[in-house]
Design goal:
Elements (H helix, E strand, L loop, with lengths): L5 H31 L2 H18 L9 H16 L13 H4 L16 H21 L2 H13 L3 H8 L3 H20 L16 H17 L10 H19 L7 H11 L13
Helix pairs in contact: 1-2, 1-3, 1-6, 2-3, 2-11, 3-7, 5-8, 5-10, 6-8, 6-10, 7-8, 8-10, 9-10
């Protein structure tokens, strides 16, 4: 079979990557905005990822998962673009900093709250989560975004980031607790002090780990055996995850999509991509 000439080859690569733009551009833009913290840098990151995919398309093995391959490129781009912000922490805090074991009052569970109050809480929770994600250390921010906003499994997050699965899981869990602590601050409090924990602290931590794993798998958790404090923490964890999942709604800005697709049609595969879209 004769070799594909440059023009058909360029068109085939552009067609393939344009399909990736259509299928994954929105979610990738969500990752970029939460990673970068501003729209300009997010657009730069998205462009770099898809242009890198275009350059590399002919080396992509068709038996691999396209989505995992694309987000592996994205994770590497995040690492290259990362500049530590002033005040950005190197660590995320201990479990005792993130959980209300000793607090006399805790967040009230919202099943009896009216619709107006619940909407207000949801709006404030999203604002807190949006702000807190950008303050997470990079090693925690990217796994959290991939899991909770993009929708990867823990195993897929580990594969994309080149981590051992337990390491990826630990970082997701700790980042989720950090966001939960931010969400907890906007929730109404109990009006009277609550009883001390029903179980030893380690038992509560074991239950917390089981709850986190149920969130990882998207399966229900049995709340019948837990105390009021754990029930409050688990309810705010549910709210935190729901807020993150709601962030995945929407797509790539139309202007960015149009510039990117135009750029794909004007450069040869493997060619330079330094010029902005």
């Amino acid at each position: 079979m004769p070799a594909m000439t440059d023009a058909p080859r360029q068109s085939a690569c552009a067609d393939a990557v344009q399909r990736l733009v259509e299928e994954h551009g929105g979610q990738l833009y969500h990752l970029a905005t939460r990673f970068c913290g501003n729209a300009t840098e997010a657009e730069d990151l998205v462009q770099e990822v898809f242009l890198s995919a275009y350059r590399s398309w002919e080396t992509f093995r068709g038996d691999a998962d396209e989505r995992t391959w694309l987000y592996t490129i994205a994770a590497r781009a995040c690492q290259r673009m990362h500049r530590k912000r002033s005040g950005e922490p190197d660590r995320i805090g201990s479990l005792s900093d993130l959980l209300p074991f000793g607090d006399p009052v805790i967040a009230a569970i919202g099943s009896d709250q009216d619709d107006v109050l619940q909407q207000q809480i949801a709006t404030e929770a999203r604002e807190r989560v949006e702000a807190e994600i950008t303050r997470l250390p990079e090693d925690y921010r990217v796994p959290l975004i991939l899991k909770e906003i993009v929708g990867f499994s823990v195993r897929e997050v580990a594969e994309v980031l080149g981590l051992e699965e337990p390491t990826a899981r630990s970082r997701i869990h700790r980042a989720r607790l950090k966001l939960r602590a931010a969400v907890d601050q906007v929730l109404p409090r109990t009006t009277t002090p609550v009883p001390p924990p029903m179980y030893p602290e380690q038992t509560c931590l074991d239950l917390l780990n089981a709850k986190q794993e149920s969130l990882d798998r998207g399966v229900p958790f049995d709340n019948s055996v837990i105390c009021e404090r754990c029930r409050s923490v688990f309810a705010s964890l549910d709210l935190t995850q729901q807020v993150c999942q709601d962030m995945a709604d929407g797509g790539m800005p139309p202007g960015l999509r149009e510039r990117l697709i135009k750029r794909l049609r004007t450069i040869p595969p493997g060619g330079p991509t330094a010029d902005p879209c």
